[in-house]
Predict the 3D structure of the following.
Amino acid sequence: MMMKGIDYFRKLYRSEKVRDVIAGVLDFVDSEDKKYNAFITINRDETLRRAEELDNKKNARGKLFGIPVAVKDNIAVKGVRLTCASRILGNYVSPYSATVVEKLLAEDAIIIGKTNLDEFAMGSSTEYSAYFPTRNPIAPDYVPGGSSGGSAAAVAAGMVPLALGSDTGGSVRQPASFTGTVGLKPTYGNVSRYGLVAFASSLDVIGPLASNLEDAELLYRVISGKDPSDSTSVCHSRSLEEVDRCTIGILDEKWLTTINPAILDAYRRLTADLERAGMKTRIIQTDLWKYALNAYYIITSSEASSNLARYDGVRYGARQEGENLLDMYFSTRTGGFGDEVKRRIFLGTFALSAGYYDKYYKKANVLRELLRREFKENFQGVDFILTPTAPELPFKLGEKVNPIDMYMSDWFTAPASLAGYPAISLPWYRNEQNLPVGIHIIGQAGDEENIFILSKKLNKIISHF
Ligand code: GLN
């Protein structure tokens, strides 16, 4: 198994036809995906038709000419099933495409299919898909992370060089960490959410997954930008004169005691390596990080309980009949949603209900604001913050039975999501069982380009790891 980058395809296109290359990709996916179940839908006929169209193209080639891309199945592609890995949307076909999809097509990319996820993007292992779990191509008894596990697995298995995921609390970054791929969560608003099925609208962001940094960067450039169809869309960009001379924020030991000891050990060594390489490091303030997960799960579940009210058996997807209207709602939602989604709807409805709103939802928002302020204060003294991407190694399928254990996966990723800041996960090292571990850089709003510059520098340092 080999990960293939954009370059691999560009070289092929010097001599080969797009249709032939893409037919080969589809055959490879057909056989390879039997092992991993990364895809929910493969778009064979449409994909080949599009490849032929590109072969006949007369005008200039787009930046992603003929590049096969996989799209997480909570992002709309016109005329293609959009399931969110949920039974409630099992037969739903999207009547329009997300802005990110339009942008990919405008650059001549080829969307070959839709990838598996935890139902409605709620989870950290892709085991909460209503259809099937996805396996980690690096170690097939292990999960690929989640919720964008299908997209990460498709890249890690070399089925596609690029994939789109979505990240609300870590869903691009943690799967990247688990599969040895690169995953970016952009600044909130820098990539349009138009056509992304809403989970928690104040945190949801679409992000790129790729086998290497340059490809992730290119994909980010293609999908980002202000979009009039998304009222929260912005165009943040911050230029930093000298990323070379930046100061890196490091977490203090007290914050790290609960994580996997081998990862902690590696983190200590990495800090020492950074200093040896001439980079400045400084320990940051993290007093509020311990509340981040609590705030994250209250806020996202509250938003989800409201966003998911639209699946009522009338407007979208599957319906299960009942004696009367209320009965129909009841059976549609009871049969249509899986356990984890129901858990979030209960939690969110409770947190928003009269009498508990102040105690939970409002308090969580106060914490979110305080956390943002703590980040801002930290960013007075440091330019970036470096953490492991996940507090743990990839785990085995079926290993995590308690939902709270699953929530703990977001330990390092949820804080940046609550603050709306961009963050990347890069392949860091493989442990003695060859399981991938990712390193995580958090920047300030609009820091994507700076994060890419620093990542390249960091890549040199960790290549000796
Ligand atoms: N694991 C987190 C959750 O279940 C993150 C999900 C996401 O980013 N979509 O909420």
Summary: The CA atoms of residues 237 and 446 lie 4 Å apart.
